[in-house]
Amino acid sequence: MNETLDAISGLGVVLRQRRTGHRVGLDAVLLAAAAGPPADRIVDVGAGVGAVGLALARRFPACQADLVEIDPEIAALAHANADSNGLSERVRVAIADVTSPAARRAAGLVDGAADLVATNPPFYRAAATRVSPDPARARAHTLGGDGLGEWLKASLALLAPDGRFAMVHRPDSLPAIYAALGGRLGDVATRPVYARAGEDAIRVLVTGVKGSRAAARLAPGLVLHEADGRATAEAQAIHEGRAML
Fold it and tell me: Engineering a disulfide at 39: which of 95, 115, 145, 173 sits with its beta carbon 3.0 to 4.6 angstroms away?
C-alpha cells in the first residue's frame, strides 16, 4: 500500500498521505499553532494533503477554507482528507500554481479576499540544492525562479487588508522573507524555534498583518526538547493540540 492513514493529534485531523516522499510533521503543527485568532476565510498556500488548512477549518467552525496545491495527485488526497474529516462543505481544494495570477483566477481564487493566509513554502531553491528524483518530493521541497520571493508575494496578494499572514521556514531564509514582506505587512513577529535551549534555531515562524504600521518584533522563542530529550511542557501542549502560539 502506497498510502498511510495518520491521526495528527496536534492538528486534530486524520490524514491520508503517501508512505514515501514529503509527510506531515512538526512544521505543519507549528504553523497551525501560530495562525492566530479565528478567521472567516482562510487560504492554505502549498497545502499538500491539507494538514494546516483542515486543522484551521476544524478549529474555526464558521470559516471557509481554500487549500491551494499545484500537484493534482496530492490535491486529490487533500480533497479526500477534507471529506473524511467531515469538512468538505467548508473546504475547497484549488489546483493552481499560486505564483501565477492567471492560474489563481482560473482556480477561482480571489486576490484580496482572505482573512488569513497560512503557508509552509518549499524550503529550497532548485538552482541551489540537489533536487530529489521523486517529482512529488521535488515539488514539495524546492522552488524555481525567484523562489521564495514570488511565493510570498503571491500569498500576500490573496490576503485582504488587515488580514493575517503566517508562515514557517528556515532561519537562513529570513533575509529573503523580510525582503518579500517589506512594505506589505506590518506588526511582523518572528518567533525562533529551537530543538534545545542554547542551540541555534531550526525553524522560524513569521506572522504579520497586511497594511499594519506596527513595528516588527522578535517574539519569545519556542524550545522543543529538554536536555534529556523529553518534550518541553509548551511543546508537548502544542503537539497534543492543547496550546497555540
Answer: 115
